[in-house]
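Lab notebook, bench 4. Still working through the backlog of constructs that have no structural model yet. Next entry is a single chain of 355 residues. Request: give me the structure tokens for it.
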Amino acid sequence: MSPRPLALGKVAIGMPAVQAALSGYSDLAMRTVAREHGAPYALNEVVLDELVLQKGKLQRRILSVPEHDHPVGGQLMGSRPETFGRAAREMVNAGYDVVDINFGCPVNKVLGRRRGGWLLQDPDTALAMVDAVLQSVAGDAPVTVKMRRGSDDSPAAEARFWTILEGAIARGITAATVHPRTVEQKYQGPSRWPFLAKVKAHVGAFPILGSGDLFSAFDVVAMLRETNVDGVTVARGCIGNPFVFTQIAELLAGRPALRPTMAMVRAALARHWQLAVPFYGDERRALPHARMHAIKYGQYHRDPVWARERMVTMRGPEHWVPLAEEVFADRFDEGRACFLTPQDAVVPALQSCTE
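Model written out:
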């Protein structure tokens, strides 16, 4: 298939498959590795508006956007329109190319603070936050929203979804990402792709990105074909699997996608570590963040249970290289077909604001 090149207003993306905002994961190291494997656009992990405005080391890290990290989206979450708008302005000033508003996170501690997916119950506040961001950004960057299809399965919840989506479009947002599970569902049950097709048909030419149950390059191609959305955001399916973006590009071009070799996996892990250490300041601070990714790479191993069990034994920076060389040794390539198949998809167990 030949999909339309994706653009978010003045920000040209190209391939219609991007890296989602992944809470606790999509830091600079992950985004860079994903870009080097074909991701045309990536979002920073969702951040609270309050943290963007609070002076200190964390604020400096959030607002650090190096030249090679473009185009990049900054995803915000909060509950007060006034601080939301100010935080959006700070992100644009720091160099983020797009500001994304999170109305989708289903995690209980987020909902309890009236953030994320909770706002789908309150169209007035949600749209006030859209207004605040658009006014603060003042056209200097595209503004997008991330939504689920409602707080629950009731007709009233779906009606509120349409009120927020249509209101945000009327106010001037550039695009919307829709995850077709409800907030109540969290990550349980299937993602209702027909709802994405319904949304796309309803809004016409307005850009819609789909999310949910994208665990392989084949899933991405299927969503684009079945729903007619303009693009997709790959979330859980790219943690430990930056290779998915090259695979997507190959399939969209009508070519077979290659499975990564063990040497490619080792190189990606080495690159991730090389990037994580300066970002977090030193090896000890970088290890907890990078270790999560290393463990996730094990999900795609020929023996995933063994691979994960070995990778979780990583206790210090000195274990990074020896474990990567042991777990992803060349011998595990023996007898494996070089082409990716739909059976290679992994469904990760991850409860976070990732889709």
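Notes after review: Residues 144 and 175 are 5 Å apart (CA to CA). The two ends are 25 Å apart (CA to CA). Flag for follow-up if needed.
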